[in-house]
């Protein structure tokens, strides 16, 4: 680069030489300089004075750059988004490394306390018309910690079970426990009796904290809790039940002064922070061990999706689940943002809440977007400030309808598991994909797809005993390393070992078995296919239940469908069956449903039996339960619900009678 003063001197020499040679006569030099100055003012100097051939080279380079940009846009349309996401991921990864190496360990609690110091009056939680600031939540948590310290004699490392509804008390009770160095077990407030005792015993807690609205559920198992010496505390001023202690008065009397960091001095990145339970779609819930490292990693999801401290985050999912608690509430703490918390999801009030609180980021899971799309249409549907939706489990058709009805919202579909060591984020606008593969992700968190035998429900292995890598579709497995560990389930060694898959690509390696079938396409997008337990095999073919359910719900009369496979005596594999609910005012249209499944599904995938139910049983996160349905089968003598059978001869669905059932069992009717 040539300074402007040098450029002027060079140009003046050229100008003087063209006029009268160089150097000019002294009597002409001054005159020529003034003329040159006037011309220079009209034509200011460029930054660089280059020879003519260099300008030609620059023109060529510029043209090449235009061609390269055009090529990238045509053949690598996601190049810019890939680069932006990779850079963002690397920055977040470096932050996590810094937190892990800090002494003392910098936890998400410390992040919260920093937010309290930075903006104490900023609203942290909106709940049912009440706003709680960061400072107020901090003080409440101090009081809870001191009350539990005095009453329950808690010490660092003691696990406490929280059996609480979706309300702010979950947050400050958890923060109070974190200040004492105590991990919390987040119990599903919908579970009862046997499941409640099972979940409680998994985590090894000796204390349970509950609320008045769940008191009856606790009293059902209170005799067992008392026998085991479990202390029960109620967030209430009074309680008549023997064996349950009230905690609210003690909390009110306690000091709200900060607690010493020495109370959690032994906490480190691999310490247990939480126990979060799986949904229980295939049996009793399992307590996934969530370390502080995993808490940090989950909290970064919001940042990876584009959320900022200025956003307002809407949480309508249960806080006992990783989506609502880790991605939602903990993610909000990491960002230092404001949250809007609801007791439960409401499709009719969803957009009113978003407008009332100026929500900019929403959360969804399972069927929540479909519930919104099924709600009555209104003129002001696009009158909101929501710009990002974070979640998982939305079908492509619902995704499209959601965007058409409610505006240009960036849907960030995720794939992850509470206990898993591999996950994906669809950071583009590609509808239907749950993520995208890039080389940086695979380098730091190795994973692959392997072939899976549906009948044997185990990976396919070669003659050397190693797994076989699949093509586009296969079982997702993530390599267990120090950077991507799999901790397992508390109190369930058998299920933990079941998730560990040895000798995958070479002898001695160890992978996490996700239990999910995924597909990678030619553009490196990731698509969820089905869960291994949900996929069944019939007539030598694999049937993906989610795909069949989508087709069944295309029938006008069907509102929801839960597809699964049932055993039939004398037949290999499992035949397709669907439990379905009907739209309001609709009757089961045998012909329409038959036409849908015949037109869009191969013979082996068509559900031969349909069970009409008033509602489908689901988990707290809208995942359909199948185990009980599979066990009950299709015997009309044992099932009160109306059953239908796909009759190939009459080409329609007909009521399943005892006579037809006996004919199927005796193999008089061929399936």
From TrEMBL:
Domain of life of the organism encoding this protein: Eukaryota
Residue intervals of the AMP-binding enzyme C-terminal domain: 547-623
Subcellular location: Cell membrane
Span of domain AMP-dependent synthetase/ligase: 114-436
Topology within the bilayer: Multi-pass membrane protein
Keyword Acetylation recorded: no
Reactions catalysed, as given in the entry: a very long-chain fatty acid + ATP + CoA = a very long-chain fatty acyl-CoA + AMP + diphosphate; tetracosanoate + ATP + CoA = tetracosanoyl-CoA + AMP + diphosphate; a long-chain fatty acid + ATP + CoA = a long-chain fatty acyl-CoA + AMP + diphosphate
Keyword hit for Lipid metabolism: yes
Keywords noted in UniProt: Cell membrane, Fatty acid metabolism, Ligase, Lipid metabolism, Lipid transport, Membrane, Nucleotide-binding, Transmembrane, Transmembrane helix, Transport
CC annotations in GO: endoplasmic reticulum membrane; plasma membrane
Broad class of where this protein is predominantly found: membrane
GO biological process: long-chain fatty acid import into cell
Enzyme Commission number: 6.2.1.3
Annotated TM spans: 54-72
Family label: Belongs to the ATP-dependent AMP-binding enzyme family.
Protein name: long-chain-fatty-acid--CoA ligase
Organism this protein belongs to: Nothobranchius furzeri
